[in-house]
């Protein structure tokens, strides 16, 4: 949030075109600052979700250690569990394979995944999000940014004008 501004994550402003019935769906990596701002600015109107594909990066690294050559099947099962809000089952599957505490995080992908899931368990409602027809990953939005900006900047002379970005 910028000083002197009431802008929230994603450039939204409380009351800036939204009403009491407006629901806000934010997808991200779970940065504490963002989740706290979502809560502070929008309260119960906002729902934050950890980007499913970001979480799968952690899961994939853990799968290398746990499942080895069976990783694809292991990953599909754990992804299905997550989409069914069974993240506790994923934690239970990771727990027996946790690396010793003396290993640094880069050398302990199972522990890193376990910690990430544990620390973000309030933001893992994939089942409800999918049922509502909302995205569980930020890829669509991020690719939209590239598309919109590229098209606006390709307008003749648009690359020189700040106004081209504001349309």
Largest sheet: 2 strands, parallel
What spatial order of strands do you see in the largest sheet? 1-2
Tally of DSSP β-strands: 2
By secondary-structure content and strand pairing, the structural class works out as: mainly alpha
Count up the domains.
Answer: 3
Element order: H for helix, E for strand: EHEHHHHHH
Share of helical residues: 40-55%
Distance between the termini: 23 Å
Element layout with pairings:
Blueprint: E1 24-28, H1 32-42, E2 46-50, H2 52-67, H3 71-83, H4 87-94, H5 109-119, H6 126-131, H7 139-153
Parallel strand pairs: 1-2
Helix pairs in contact: 2-3, 2-5, 4-5
Properties at a glance:
globular, mainly alpha, 167 residues, two-stranded parallel sheet, disordered N terminus, single chain
Outline the structure in words.
By secondary structure, the protein is mostly helical. It has 3 domains: 1-50, no CATH class; 52-123, no CATH class; 139-167, no CATH class. Helices cover 48% and strands 6% of the residues. The protein has helices at residues 32-42, 52-67, 71-83, 87-94, 109-119, 126-131, 139-153, and strands spanning 24-28, 46-50. Strands 1-2 form a two-stranded parallel ribbon. α1 links the parallel β1 (24-28) and β2. α2 runs antiparallel to α3 (71-83).
């Amino acid at each position: 949030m910028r000083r002197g501004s009431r802008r929230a994550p994603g450039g939204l402003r409380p009351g800036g075109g939204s009403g009491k019935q407006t629901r806000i769906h934010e997808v991200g990596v779970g940065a504490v600052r963002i989740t706290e701002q979502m809560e502070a600015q929008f309260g119960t109107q906002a729902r934050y979700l950890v980007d499913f594909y970001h979480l799968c990066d952690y899961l994939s690294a853990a799968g290398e250690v746990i499942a080895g050559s069976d990783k694809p099947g292991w990953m599909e099962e754990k992804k299905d569990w997550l989409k069914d809000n069974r993240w506790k089952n994923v934690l239970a599957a990771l727990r027996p394979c946790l690396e010793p505490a003396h290993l640094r995080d880069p050398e302990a992908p199972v522990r890193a995944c376990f910690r990430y899931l544990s620390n973000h368990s309030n933001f893992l409602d994939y089942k409800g999000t999918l049922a509502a027809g909302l995205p569980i990953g930020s890829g669509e939005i991020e690719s939209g940014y590239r598309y919109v900006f590229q098209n606006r900047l390709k307008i003749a002379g648009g690359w020189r004008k700040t106004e081209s970005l504001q349309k």
